[in-house]
Amino acid sequence: MRDEISCAIRAVMEQYSQLTAYGFFHPLRNASFDDDRHQMFDTNFAFQVETAMEFIQRRCRPTKTLNGFSYALKHVAEAFGSVNGLASYVPNGAIIVAAAILGIRLKRIGLPPNCYLALKVREGNHGGE
């Protein structure tokens, strides 16, 4: 499964050339674009994307409007991962990559690293089932 996710991550990286492990590159962030982007090849990042995909599939529903904020969703995905034996840390870029892999519409927000996603968290317990 991780090999499939790694291939999907590469495809998303080609589609979104400014996307890094921490979201869309922001020139004011005190980090290197190349370093942040290289982290997307790490097996730990694939596990974080897998966690984000599980979270989206089990706890979210697609919407027509762009009302999900990537940075907020990453925190809910972390809580989900913590109680479900998955990654307890999910970087902003992992939630964006997971949404792109799953065909969720997204839109970058100007300069910041975040984006809007056409997702809404289902009502109820945001951790487990």
Brief write-up:
This protein is an alpha+beta fold and 129 residues long.
What is the fold's blueprint, element by element?
Layout: H1 2-15, E1 19-20, E2 23-24, H2 33-38, H3 43-59, E3 60-62, E4 68-69, H4 70-83, H5 92-101, E5 106-108, E6 115-117, E7 119-121
Antiparallel strand pairs: 1-2, 3-7, 4-6, 5-6
Helix pairs in contact: 1-3, 1-5, 3-4, 3-5, 4-5
Task: Describe what you observe in this structure.
With 129 residues, the chain is of the alpha+beta class. The protein has one domain. Helix content is 47%, strand content 14%. It has 5 helices and 7 strands, in the order H-E-E-H-H-E-E-H-H-E-E-E. It has helices at 2-15, 33-38, 43-59, 70-83, 92-101, and strands spanning 19-20, 23-24, 60-62, 68-69, 106-108, 115-117, 119-121. The strands form 3 sheets. It has a 3-stranded antiparallel beta sheet with strand order 4-6-5. The chain has a two-stranded antiparallel sheet with strand order 1-2. A two-stranded antiparallel sheet has the order 3-7. Strand 5 (106-108) and strand 6 form a beta hairpin. Helix 3 (43-59) packs across helix 5 (92-101). The longest helix has 17 residues, at 43-59. The protein is globular. The model has no long low-confidence stretch (mean pLDDT 92).
Provide keyphrases for this structure.
single chain, 129 residues, alpha+beta, three-stranded antiparallel beta sheet, two-stranded antiparallel sheet, 7 strands
